[in-house]
TrEMBL record, chains A, B:
PANTHER family: ADP-RIBOSE PYROPHOSPHATASE, SLR1690 PROTEIN. Signal peptide: none annotated. Residues 6-142 form the Nudix hydrolase domain. CDD domains: NUDIX_NadM_like (cd18873). This is NUDIX domain-containing protein. The lineage of its organism: Bacteria, Bacillati, Actinomycetota, Actinomycetes, Micrococcales. It comes from Antiquaquibacter soli.
Length: 230, 230
DNA sequence: GCACTTAGGGTCAGGGTGACTACAACTCGG
DNA sequence: CCGAGTTGTAGTCACCCTGACCCTAAGTGC
């Protein structure tokens, strides 16, 4: 049996905010300061223990809300980390999730002594194996960006093509040709009638995602494992 | 804390063997018969409890060997299943792995009352949520076949292009053009000097994988989480 | 020697991609 | 009110990858 193994969930949360140097959108991640040993005062991913009456994704969502005040628009399991020595005092297996939030939702997690936002590509030394975990989560986010539709988790229901392109550029860290980008994503979108005026240029059209276009995602798990709390 | 959650590992093992009807290679999976409740007498994925002094992948490999006698050439974590009601009597979280074995290794797991090989695409109703798990594992195998190099886990160190192509055909369940297939995979291979004579046709050349060609795989986890027991 | 079978090299048309050009349509400064 | 500035959107073109297809190479077996 395995009663002496503790089961935890942690989540790597990503949000887009301006980079302090360039002003361009960049990936940020909220971390919590540990208030006890091991790794007291080190920054760590938000997380906690799984209680017996909640699913893993529910536990992740609950811990997220409790520790950082964040309610994500996207939540997916990343990996189960279970090396014997990953916690110095006892055996902990962590089911790690990754989440995407919109800027407004991110603001719910106000910086404070206990929660602080960091640039995802420039983190301090974290507690446990959390640096490795964030690296892996970043890799998954960037890989998945290329073939799936997760970018929309950073945006509202409607958006301009430039907004969508800037999400891709921020995550992939390279500029994309506006015309070519349009050609590629337009088949998965539906144009609305609305144009956004007010900019000092030609007003862009608002788009929404075309729900009828199915993309490869998580295969059989896509429908099979919905969150029990919507 | 989480002492009342049991932590298990299970593994979906794949091997290629001839299909009884067509004679072509097909995917087979070994299952074990449950000897106690819940789901007594139902077929299930091999698995067992994680002990506190072994990593998750070690636990998977050990359980594999104990229950089916199989030592895989490839072992990768699939997903952590943790729905509250997936086991009727108590709360079990299962870290599921998937494995690939060569035919010789597969023969170690002789069919018997307790272990039997099934066609992966034609399974009976399994215990727990194991049908969903196998579906997901199959999806991952087939998806990964297209962009990675896992096919080699079904083969020895050297192989002909036809052997490699037949592995792809068996997994993807569709015929591939030999000439086009060669063009696509040859850049990742090294030709040996050896030709295989004895067939009633032009002798094919043996190839081996080019270790210097890096493919996208599991990102940061590729090197970071090796099995502790090699 | 000839039929047969698979190995392996080549061609060609079509689709997608990146680089680039051109025009459209708004705001703002004068 | 007009032109400059800026971004949105359409289109072109060369290139590469792909699938479909053809052809020759080189063994075995009769």
């Amino acid at each position: 049996m395995s009663a002496d193994i503790s089961l935890a969930v942690s989540t790597a949360i990503f949000a887009l905010r301006p980079h302090p140097d360039t002003g361009l959108s960049a990936l940020w991640i909220p971390l919590v300061r540990r208030t006890r040993d091991p790794f007291e005062n080190r920054w760590a991913l938000p997380g906690g223990w799984v209680s017996p009456d909640e699913s893993l994704s529910d536990a992740a969502a609950r811990n997220l809300l409790e520790t950082t005040g964040v309610e994500p628009t996207y939540l997916e399991q990343l990996y189960a980390f279970g090396a014997v020595d990953r916690s110095p005092d006892r055996r902990v297996v962590s089911i790690v999730y990754w989440a995407l939030v919109r800027p407004e939702q991110a603001d719910a997690a106000t910086d404070g002594d206990n929660v602080r936002w960091f640039l995802a590509d420039d983190l301090p030394e974290l507690a446990f194996d959390h640096n490795l975990i964030v690296d892996y989560a970043l890799w998954r986010l960037r890989t998945k960006m290329e073939y799936s539709r997760i970018a929309h988790a950073f945006l509202g229901p409607t958006f301009t093509l430039t907004e969508l392109r800037e999400v891709h550029e921020a995550v992939l860290q390279r500029p994309l040709d506006p015309a070519n980008f349009r050609r590629q994503v337009e088949p998965t979108l539906v144009a609305t009638e609305t144009l956004v005026t007010g900019g000092r240029h030609r007003p862009p059209r608002l788009y929404r995602y075309d729900e009828s276009v199915r993309l490869v995602d998580n295969g059989p798990l896509t429908i099979a494992t919905p969150r029990s709390t919507p």
